[in-house]
Design brief:
The complex is a heterodimer of chains A (about 110) and B (about 110). With about 110 residues, chain A is mainly β. Chain A is about 0% helix and about 45% strand. In chain B, strands 2, 4, 5, 6, 9, 10 and 11 form a seven-stranded mixed beta sheet that branches. Chain B has a four-stranded antiparallel beta sheet with strand order 1-3-8-7, with no helix packed on it. The chains are: A mainly beta (about 110), B mainly beta (about 110). The interface between A and B is medium-sized, with 24 and 27 residues.
Chain lengths: ~110, ~110
């Protein structure tokens, strides 16, 4: 699976949009971009994933650049409960041989400030 | 409610005393796995299972055993715990390994003294 690069930390004012970048310049055509978050030692929580089109759900939006080398997770109206470590993960879309693991990097620690 | 349930949530034990951390999911997922999380090292996979009676090692399997006798349960066994297994453990499940979202349990904080 391709490696990802994220800033170690970011701040966001409560009520404002939080834009979390991720670089995945070695992504291949059959790899999805996934986002998870972990709130203070709780189990990681799935947020969203996409292949090449932008995606939106009730939690967030995912914007993937046309060349697919980077993406941005957008939390449209950040709240204090969104303070967490956010992980960007790239994974193959195909099942098959392999460890099936999610490879978590260090992620971005997002602090939402009142 | 769809969930992955781990027990216990907290455990303090002594070196060498066998223990089992249970994991159960109610979503009929085929794929289950165990991770440990340590400061500065992130989440690392211990073992995974693609279906009943099918298990395989992850990145850090030494000192652990698993079994998958039923689809819903995937216990993690420490036959002879050591202090370096003090960690935060997470169980996860998904419908299949790679193309769908994974659901994580709330974690088990284990301390081995």
């Amino acid at each position: 699976d391709a490696k990802t690069t994220q800033p170690p930390s970011m701040d966001c004012a409560e009520g404002r949009a939080a834009n979390l970048p991720c670089n995945h310049s070695t992504i291949s055509g059959n790899e999805y971009v996934y986002w998870y978050r972990q709130i203070h030692s709780q189990g990681p929580q799935y947020i969203i994933h996409g292949l090449k089109n932008n995606e939106t759900n009730e939690m967030a939006s995912l914007i993937i650049t046309e060349d697919r080398k980077s993406s941005t997770l957008i939390l449209p109206h950040a709240t204090l409960r969104d303070t967490a470590v956010y992980y960007c993960i790239v994974r193959s879309r195909y099942s098959g041989a392999g460890s099936y693991q999610l490879t978590f990097g260090k992620g971005t620690k997002l602090s939402v400030i009142p | 409610e769809a969930q992955v349930t781990q027990n216990p949530r907290y455990l303090i034990t002594v070196t060498g005393k066998k223990l089992t951390v249970t994991c159960s999911q109610n979503m009929n997922h085929e794929y289950m796995s165990w991770y440990r999380q340590d400061p500065g090292l992130g989440l690392r996979q211990i073992y995974y299972s693609m279906n009943v009676e099918v298990t395989d090692k992850g990145d850090v399997p030494e000192g652990y055993k698993v079994s998958r006798k039923e689809k819903r349960n995937f216990p993690l066994i420490l036959e002879s715990p050591s202090p370096n297994q003090t960690s935060l453990y997470f169980c996860a499940s998904s419908f299949e390994g790679r193309s769908t979202e994974a659901f994580f349990g709330q974690g088990t904080r284990l301390t081995v003294v």
